[in-house]
Amino acid sequence: MTDEAGPWLVVGLGNPGREYAGNRHNVGFMVVELLAGRVGARFGRHKRAVAEVAEARLGFGGPKLVLVKPLTYMNLSGGPVAALAQFYKVPTTQVIAVHDELDIGFGQVRVKFGGGEGGHNGLRSMSKSLGTKDYARVRFGVGRPPGRQDPADYVLSDFGAAERKELDFLVDRAADVVESVIVKGVEPTQNLYHGS
Question: Can you give the pLDDT at residue 2?
């Protein structure tokens, strides 16, 4: 199904700007930044898309990675993603979206291929711009907001103090999951990570 030689587009979903950096909604940015650090790549502004991009290989002689942080704000993420998929000639089967997920408890990372967007505006924009829902998603659980807090306010707030103690470990785990999807595929990755 996948072309080993072809690049993978790994999209961290989030909002640009320092005021959003620690938000739950920006965990996708956190994961792709860690992945860039692992492979020694630096983000720079792309000429053809409103996004920051870092290019590298996963391991010696491994598949090419194009790590992406769209700079259009979450609701318009799809435009830059579609432009970059076209520019790098990446099939949607080799696109991975990394995003926060309200329907999964904090501390859990899940992966799936295709399916609905669960009300996530970044995914909705990606699916519309790519013309398909058939791409992989690495879903970082942030849990439901406490009490009657509006989910939109909740995801645009920073992780709590207790959560921040675990955050580095969980971002690291999510980066492992992304690498596993690229190297092993979605189903083997689900078998590896969903039980724990």
Answer: 42
